[in-house]
């Protein structure tokens, strides 16, 4: 739903900018650092809007890449913490395993005593 509203607002903004540009068709002097030129105001307006859209899009893409990198980092940290948790639970033995190991060690010790 949010994407639809963004699209609708974008279309409305484009229509308003187009109407504003079409109304202003007079020639204007544009001063560059290296000279001046006469341009129709409609081209100046549309060029300015296009440059603004490119800048906003570039900033948005940088932010998206930063967020994707953060997501990767967080997933990696979560996976490593899950592995640490699993290995810690594997290292912990329940009491029945301890008793079984102790009985096995006693049997080995008793068999060694009998053989001596």
Q: What quaternary form is this?
A: single chain
Rounded mean pLDDT is 81
Strand order of the largest sheet: 1-2
As a whole number of angstroms, the C-alpha radius of gyration is 36 Å
* Terminal CA distance: 83 Å
Largest sheet: 2 strands, antiparallel
Helix content: over 70%
Shape category: rod-shaped
Number of strands: 2
Strand residue percentage: 5-15%
Structural class based on helices, strands and sheet pairing: mainly alpha
User: Count of DSSP helices?
Assistant: 3
Describe the protein:
The protein is mainly alpha-helical. Helices cover 81% and strands 9% of the residues. It is built from 3 helices and 2 strands, in the order H-E-E-H-H. The chain has helices at residues 2-23, 41-91, 95-115, and strands at 27-31, 36-40. The chain has a two-stranded antiparallel sheet with strand order 1-2. A hairpin with a 4-residue loop joins strand 1 (27-31) and strand 2 (36-40). Helix 1 runs antiparallel to helix 2. The radius of gyration is 36 Å and the shape is rod-shaped. The relative contact order is 0.05. The model has no long low-confidence stretch (mean pLDDT 81).
């Amino acid at each position: 739903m949010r994407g639809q509203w963004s699209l609708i607002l974008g279309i409305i903004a484009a229509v308003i900018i187009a109407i504003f540009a079409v109304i202003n068709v007079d020639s204007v002097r544009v001063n560059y650092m290296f000279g001046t030129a006469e341009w129709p105001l409609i081209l100046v307006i549309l060029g300015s809007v296009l440059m603004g859209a490119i800048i906003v899009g570039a900033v948005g893409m940088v932010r998206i890449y930063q967020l994707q990198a953060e997501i990767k980092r967080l997933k990696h940290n979560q996976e490593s913490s899950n592995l640490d948790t699993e290995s810690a639970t594997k290292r912990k033995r329940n009491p029945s395993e301890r008793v079984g190991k102790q009985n096995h060690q006693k049997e080995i010790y008793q068999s060694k005593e009998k053989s001596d």
